[in-house]
Amino acid sequence: MRIVIVDDEPLARGRLRTLIDELGDHEVVGEAANGAEALETVSSCNPDLMLLDIRMPGINGLEAARHIALLDNPPAVIFTTAYGEHALEAFDAQAVDYLLKPIRPERLEQALARVQKLSGDQIGALQEAAGDESRRHIASRIGDRLELIDVAAIGCFVAEHKYVSLYHTGGEVLIEEPLKALESEFSERFVRVHRNSLVSKERIAGMEPDGEGGHRLLLRDVEFKPPVSRRHLAEIRKLLKAMG
């Protein structure tokens, strides 16, 4: 198999590379030091498998795996971790293979022999069960690459047919995630303003009439003005008042 090693510790990457070389039959085609680099490496190296550390600065391994699962032909993933026993129960429940640090050669060989691909839903459930925080980025698939949008830069999500439009400070992209799931994951940061819209509380700058008896929200540094339904109008006015 073609393998990419992802770990923020150079010594850990070096040890894994040595173990794989000693096993033979496999080739390390790339390395990455964090989740963002992992996404770039997948696009450039087209690996069959990623050995993916979980605890990394920025985009951690669970979040990176969730984004990678959106690709048309994602690599298989084996997590490497120093998680405690309680968190490892979540991995076992999701039938996800993982290697507990320090990694033993025989355990690595066993894991490589039963490599399997993971679904985005499976990784998302694992992320929740392991008590991991909500994602810091949302991934939009553009052709054969992923564009990552910082959650802090997002103004709103708007459901339209089978897709969700994501409006952010840099423009607009489409994502394939249910609005209900986004609302559940980001309930602390986003508020429902319409049956098909979620808006970032941090980016609400005001509200104005739409000229047709309704209202639209003004968002900081985001051009799109999402409509506010009558059902949610009182809640939004209360929120605006609390914001001063």
From TrEMBL:
<protein>
    <submittedName>
        <fullName>DNA-binding response regulator</fullName>
    </submittedName>
</protein>
<keyword id="KW-0902">Two-component regulatory system</keyword>
<dbReference type="GO" id="GO:0032993">
    <property type="term" value="C:protein-DNA complex"/>
</dbReference>
<dbReference type="InterPro" id="IPR007492">
    <property type="entry name" value="LytTR_DNA-bd_dom"/>
</dbReference>
<dbReference type="GO" id="GO:0000156">
    <property type="term" value="F:phosphorelay response regulator activity"/>
</dbReference>
<dbReference type="GO" id="GO:0000976">
    <property type="term" value="F:transcription cis-regulatory region binding"/>
</dbReference>
<feature type="domain" description="HTH LytTR-type">
    <location>
        <begin position="138"/>
        <end position="242"/>
    </location>
</feature>
<keyword id="KW-0597">Phosphoprotein</keyword>
<feature type="domain" description="Response regulatory">
    <location>
        <begin position="2"/>
        <end position="116"/>
    </location>
</feature>
<dbReference type="Pfam" id="PF00072">
    <property type="entry name" value="Response_reg"/>
</dbReference>
<dbReference type="GO" id="GO:0006355">
    <property type="term" value="P:regulation of DNA-templated transcription"/>
</dbReference>
<dbReference type="InterPro" id="IPR039420">
    <property type="entry name" value="WalR-like"/>
</dbReference>
<dbReference type="InterPro" id="IPR001789">
    <property type="entry name" value="Sig_transdc_resp-reg_receiver"/>
</dbReference>
<dbReference type="GO" id="GO:0005829">
    <property type="term" value="C:cytosol"/>
</dbReference>
<feature type="modified residue" description="4-aspartylphosphate">
    <location>
        <position position="53"/>
    </location>
</feature>
<dbReference type="InterPro" id="IPR011006">
    <property type="entry name" value="CheY-like_superfamily"/>
</dbReference>
<keyword id="KW-0238">DNA-binding</keyword>
<dbReference type="Pfam" id="PF04397">
    <property type="entry name" value="LytTR"/>
</dbReference>
